[in-house]
Design a protein that fits this description.
With about 675 residues, this protein is α+β, with helices and mostly antiparallel strands. The protein is built from 20 helices and 33 strands. The strands form 8 sheets. The protein has a 6-stranded mixed beta sheet, with helices on both faces. It has a 6-stranded antiparallel β-barrel with strand order 7-8-14-11-10-15. A 6-stranded antiparallel beta barrel has the order 16-19-18-17-20-21. Bound molecules: guanosine-5'-triphosphate (GTP) and magnesium ion.
């Protein structure tokens, strides 16, 4: 358990910690000289049950409230100190308000210096304290009268702290690791050391960590938890980490940064949150009001954007967007405190709801509905609620990261909810099974209607299809979902075209016969320089116009391509040429020339250039000067994208594509990384 002091200057916080632990936490020369605390002090006390209590002693001076804030995050238990002779004073109120805004509900009031106050004064201050605590999370807290001069109440108080620690439930360490840094220093012989409270998860010697927001990477060499050398530090413990790594030094690390699991490093400067304005404020919070934001041990300038209709009145709570001057490392559900720009008073605070807040449409009803779902504390309930509302899909990886969830936790939640997951690159998107069913119905119905209206087309373009479906999925999850459906043989994917599995464009018997005569002419040994429409017409003794009509029809069906005017190649030949340029590209990463391509297809300079220009138009090749490079994102355009071929190229992170499994082992679909060229926007040379 970590105990934090709170209270007005000179009320006896440091003296009390010393009486309880035997440790003087005022270490600084200036603190000694002035007789006040300036920065945080730390002490430890072994309990009879073998556990160790950590103490964070904070300064009471109004100028050092920012230091108090840095220490107050991460404490479990507050020791609110009120001097019996002085009574409740301004920083008694302010520290109490801060503790309350941080959501700390366990604590004891130490009524100090009772040797200096007569009984009636003690009674008066006790009543004052009871009134003060009313309406806060500490309402009804025990008040213990103590004196560090006479020793009154000290043993009793210590025992009560031991009892509290004994009943305190250890924080779960199942989430990913985060530690808010309150000190960074160099230890002779050891190197760089950072200290702070482990906010979530656990850390072990040897772990790789990232300092966020700076992004500095480090390795944990050794760990002290609650002042003892250990192999592993867990949530709720004060830890000192000895860090190693390139560029790791005390000057490269600042108080307020967070040491975290590298997977969590994603600083943000725009956060949607709930904000409660303290009842003691005299003015409401208005649009774009500036403030100082305190989170963990960090402090940053911020602007407040109201998400509700009206200014926030004192004593009330409302959703806001916080636009920060600099990015911070945070997690959803973290508490924050706001102070005024001159750092003279605390004005309010609240809870972070969404770390990826949008800059636009931030007050749209749809957005506010999402925010409501974000406000749900339990991650499984929150996720279920989010997937019930537009846009009906979520980047599951980002959701897990922003709540500091471990991979195992996220997996369990997705399994419990029966989510359908789609892998796209290093991200995993999720849909509820109900939305998935709706999406699939919409997809199959759209394809059916498209085929009915366009019987001679091979299929609908990917992007056109995506825009028509309900719900509309982002490109990446959309692609991996299609991929999975193709694997299930529900649909067919031919390059950038999508069709129902059963759909096949059929030529009339007459055209069929004609094609049987023409195909060998453009598909044989001369396939890289096939005859043009006019030559074919002569060879099969037909009118040019009839040959052109048939070949254009075949192009629409995806069986031929018009590479240059009246010059058609079989689709299979185009696919073969794509393989050739891939080959050339691999051999010549700086680019290949038209002559080098011509040598491979042996078809003469003019035709070779026309083919390359055709590829340029479709984005398959990228031309610079006389050289071309291959655009790997467009390679699917002319080949039939068999599902197994694609999933072989990029393996799915969890399992094989498997749509039919119900709850329990949920499917994660292998997917591809980029959307091929939307064919609806491509003009062929005709
Ligand atoms: N008579 C009496 N004096 C006390 C007692 N506790 C503390 N003092 C005195 O009160 C003064 C302030 O004590 P500190 O412990 O430094 O007070 P603090 O709350 O830590 O002050 P800041 O950290 O500066 O906010 C010192 O001179 C102490 O000796 C007590 O129980 N009785
Ligand atoms: Mg002090």
């Amino acid at each position: 358990m970590i105990v934090g002091t709170a209270g007005h200057i000179d009320h006896g916080k440091t003296s009390l910690v010393r009486a309880l632990t035997g440790i003087d936490t005022d270490r600084l020369k200036e603190e000694k000289a002035r007789g006040i605390s300036i920065d945080l002090g730390f002490a430890y006390l072994p309990a009879p049950d073998g556990s160790i209590l950590g103490f964070v002693d904070v300064p009471g001076h109004e100028k050092f409230v920012h230091n108090m804030l840095a220490g107050a995050t991460g404490i479990d238990f507050v020791l609110l100190v009120v001097a019996a002779d002085d009574g409740v004073m301004p920083q008694t109120r302010e520290h109490l308000a801060i503790v309350d805004l941080l959501g700390i509900t366990r604590g004891i009031v130490a009524l100090t210096k009772v040797d200096l106050a007569p009984p009636e004064q003690i009674a008066k201050v006790s009543a004052e304290i009871a009134r003060l605590l009313e309406g806060t999370g500490l309402a009804g807290a025990e008040v213990v009268a103590v004196s560090t001069v006479t020793g009154t109440g000290i043993d009793d108080l210590r025992q009560r702290l031991f009892d509290a620690a004994h009943t305190m439930q250890a924080r779960a360490a199942t989430e990913r690791f985060r530690l808010g840094i309150d000190r960074a220093f160099t230890l002779p012989g050891a190197g760089t050391v950072v200290t702070g409270t482990v906010l979530s998860g656990a850390v072990s010697a040897g772990d790789k960590v990232t300092i966020s927001p700076s992004g500095l990477e480090a390795r944990v060499r050794t760990i002290h938890a609650q002042n003892r050398p250990v192999q592993r530090g867990v949530a709720g413990e004060r830890c000192a980490l000895n860090l190693a790594g390139d560029g790791v030094s005390k000057d490269a690390i600042a108080r307020g940064e967070v040491v975290l699991d590298p997977a969590l490093h994603a600083p943000t400067d725009r956060i949607d949150a709930t904000l409660r304005l303290l009842a003691t404020e005299t003015k409401p919070i208005t649009q774009w009001m500036p403030a100082r934001l305190h989170h963990a041990a960090t402090e940053v300038g911020a602007r407040i954007v109201l998400l509700g209709e009206t200014p926030i009145a004192p004593g009330t709570e409302a959703p806001v967007q916080l636009v920060l001057d600099a990015p911070i490392a945070a997690a959803e559900g973290d508490r924050f405190v706001l102070r005024d720009t001159t750092a003279q008073r605390t004005i309010g605070g609240g809870t972070f709801l969404d770390l990826r807040a949008p800059a636009r449409k931030r007050r749209a009803p749809e957005r506010l509905a999402q925010l409501k779902a974000h406000a749900i504390g339990d991650p499984q309930d929150a996720l279920a609620a989010m997937l019930e509302i537009a846009p009906y899909n979520i980047d599951l990886s980002a959701f897990g990261r922003d709540r500091a969830l471990s991979a195992a936790q996220l997996d369990t939640i997705a399994g419990n909810l029966g989510l359908v997951r789609a892998a796209a690159g290093d991200r995993v998107f999720a849909l509820s099974s109900a939305v998935w069913a709706r999406f699939k119905r919409s997809l199959l119905e759209t394809l059916k209607q498209f085929h009915a209206a366009n019987p001679d087309l091979a299929g609908i373009g990917l992007e056109k299809l995506r825009m028509q479906l309900e719900p509309r999925l982002p490109v990446k999850p959309f692609m991996s979902v299609l991929q999975a459906l193709a694997g299930e043989k529900e649909i067919g994917l031919d390059g950038a075209w999508v069709r129902l599995a059963g759909h096949e464009v059929r030529l009339t018997p007459h055209d069929e016969k004609l094609w049987a005569r023409i195909e060998p002419l453009i598909g044989g040994a001369e396939r890289f320089r096939p005859p043009r429409v006019r030559d074919i017409a002569g060879m099969v003794n037909l009118r040019e116009i009839d040959v052109r009509r048939l070949l254009k029809l075949l192009a629409r069906m995806g069986k031929a391509d018009e590479v240059a005017l009246d010059h058609f190649f079989r689709r299979a030949t185009v696919a073969e040429m794509v393989d050739i340029i891939v080959d050339l590209g691999a051999a010549l990463p700086e680019g290949f020339s038209a002559a080098q391509f011509r040598d491979r297809v042996d078809n003469g300079r003019k035709v070779a250039i026309q083919i390359l220009e055709f590829f340029d138009r479709h984005g398959v090749t990228l031309r610079r000067g006389d050289l071309r490079r291959v655009n790997k994102h467009r390679l699917d355009l002319f080949c039939s994208v068999a599902a197994d071929k694609v999933s072989g190229r990029e393996s799915s992170p969890v399992g094989r594509p498997d749509f039919k499994s119900g709850r329990g082992r949920e499917p994660v679909l292998g997917g591809f990384d980029s959307l091929s060229l939307p064919p609806d926007n491509v003009k062929t040379a005709s």
